[in-house]
Write a structure and sequence with these properties.
By secondary structure, the chain is mainly α. The protein is built from 21 helices and three strands. Helix 1 crosses helix 2 (25-34), helix 2 crosses helix 5 (103-120) and helix 6 (126-145) runs antiparallel to helix 11. The longest helix has 28 residues, at 223-250. The radius of gyration is 25 Å and the shape is globular. The structure holds iron/sulfur cluster.
Length: 469
């Protein structure tokens, strides 16, 4: 009986490991067994049974129930998007995602979603970032929901797979530090080693802790939460690496049609869930409060006014490429970026890029022309850098097919401008109340428009106060 129980627990732990880490040996084994993508759209009765048996799963609407692997791949992303953006999000619509019995289907659907995204989108795209974030969040929630006995065992099993548990050097966290998924201050270090285990912590620090119970200090400073953070960040990093690898391979290998179809479905789902950013006035969809309106030059802060008039050779490049490009694009399209969401791209608000091409780029290029000497005459490469800072990669003009090759940069803070572009910062009275040129613009726009208590004005003021970054 004892042997039977230990086999059951071992099996259970193996399943849980793949449920938490699709890159585990168990996860890879599951994918190898599945092999083909030909039946991913076929109704899968085993999957349906697990979904329907999931505790508290909402069964009132067929739309909540994944019927096959392809559905499950899309629903994983949908879960994350709705959790993030939808005020009406109901956990019970997706309870199946936190049912460990779904592990086998979940692992396969993870790889299907990752491949579909990597084929259709750039590794730096918003879609790739959502896939990575979704995986990190799922792991955190799944760990939270595990019974304590499975949780401890799973944590140790996962750490053993991911790092050499007894002896993690801080340098092995290099990729996580580089990609800012973790900060050095998040972990306890001693002689270059990351301390995770209680025994190790007590051996090293027990004598040095005065007036506190060392065990409690361990629970407070490290405990399971640091292990969980390292695990989820590491798996996010693996997911990122995997997306890059598949994206590279996709340029030489013809993708399976099922992956192209699923990539399309994921793109539609992401658009639907972020639709609050587009439409008249930028409202609609899941409760946005964004106002994309024509630029108001009389609300520009002094640093932007001076940049538009033209800048001398010392500061030209940074003023146009870094400061004005981000300021003009966000002020025109997404002034409340600091309040809302950073995984937005220009086409969410300007789907055909008409505003970008007809209003934003001409303003930036005119300012570049006003420089002394004109920026692009001297340095034509900077034209490409402007396009790159809008999120369209290094190309001559913004095109939807290239969006996501680079990041859409948010405006730099006043502190940074004062350091790097000090000659442009000539603060006026409004500057005392803000920390970023964009928040200056939002506040000033509100002041200029302030003609009563209408809701639009209140929203703009709210945005201005939030955008102090
Ligand atoms: S304080 Fe900020 S907004 Fe005002 S001029 Fe200086 S950099 Fe621009």
């Amino acid at each position: 009986m004892a042997k039977f129980l230990s086999i059951v627990l071992l099996r259970l732990n193996m399943v849980i490991l793949s449920y938490l880490n699709p890159f585990s040996t168990e996860g890879e084994e599951i994918v190898r067994e599945q092999g083909s993508l030909d039946d991913v759209f076929e109704i899968n009765t085993d999957l349906l049974r697990i979904v329907m048996d999931s505790k508290s799963q909402n069964l009132s609407n067929d739309n909540y129930i994944p019927q096959n692997y392809a559905d499950l791949a899309v629903k994983r992303l949908e879960w994350y998007l709705r959790k993030k953006y939808d005020k009406k999000y109901d956990h019970n619509d997706y309870a199946f995602l936190l049912n460990p019995n779904i592990a086998q289907f979940d692992v396969i659907s993870f790889y299907i979603a990752a491949q579909a995204i990597a084929i259709k989108f750039n590794p730096n795209s918003r879609e790739s970032r959502l896939m990575i974030e979704c995986q990190g969040r799922l792991i955190e929630e799944r760990l939270e929901k595990l019974p304590p006995i499975n949780r401890k065992e799973s944590l140790n099993g996962l750490l053993n797979q991911i790092v050499t548990q007894d002896n993690i050097k801080w340098t092995s966290l290099g990729p996580l530090l580089d990609s800012k998924k973790i900060k050095l201050t998040d972990v306890i270090l001693d002689k270059g080693k990351v301390i995770l285990e209680k025994d190790d912590f007590l051996t090293r620090f027990e004598d040095k802790i005065i007036g506190r119970v060392p065990e409690k200090m361990y629970d407070l400073l490290i405990g399971d939460k640091i292990k969980e953070m390292i695990i989820s960040r590491m798996i996010m990093q693996y997911t990122e690496n995997y997306l890059k690898k598949v994206h590279e391979m996709a340029s030489t290998i013809e993708p399976h049609p099922a992956l192209l179809e699923i990539g399309e479905q994921i793109a539609v789902k992401i658009k639907e869930n972020m639709s609050y950013l587009s439409g008249p006035g930028g409202s609609g969809g899941f409760g946005g409060n964004i106002k994309a309106t024509a630029l108001q030059p009389n609300a520009f802060p002094p640093c932007i006014g001076k940049t538009i008039e033209g800048v001398g050779s010392g500061n030209r490049n940074d003023a146009i490429v870094l400061l004005l490009t981000s300021f003009a694009s966000y002020a025109r399209l997404y002034p409340s970026v600091f309040r809302n969401e950073s995984t937005t791209k220009i086409s969410d608000i300007d789907p055909d890029l008409k505003i970008t091409l007809n209003e934003i780029i001409p303003l930036i290029f005119q300012a570049a022309d006003n420089c002394n000497p004109p920026l692009f005459e001297d340095d034509p490469q900077e034209k490409l850098n402007v396009i790159a800072k809008l999120g369209f990669g290094v190309h001559k003009e913004p095109e939807l097919k290239n969006e996501g090759e680079s990041k859409w940069y948010t405006p730099m803070s006043c502190d940074k401008i004062k350091i790097h572009l000090s000659s442009l910062c000539k603060p006026d009275a409004t500057c005392k109340k803000i920390g970023n040129p964009l928040s200056y613009y939002n506040r000033k726009t509100w002041e200029l428009r302030n003609s009563g208590d209408n809701e639009d004005n209140a929203q703009t003021k709210e945005s201005s106060e939030d955008a102090q970054t």
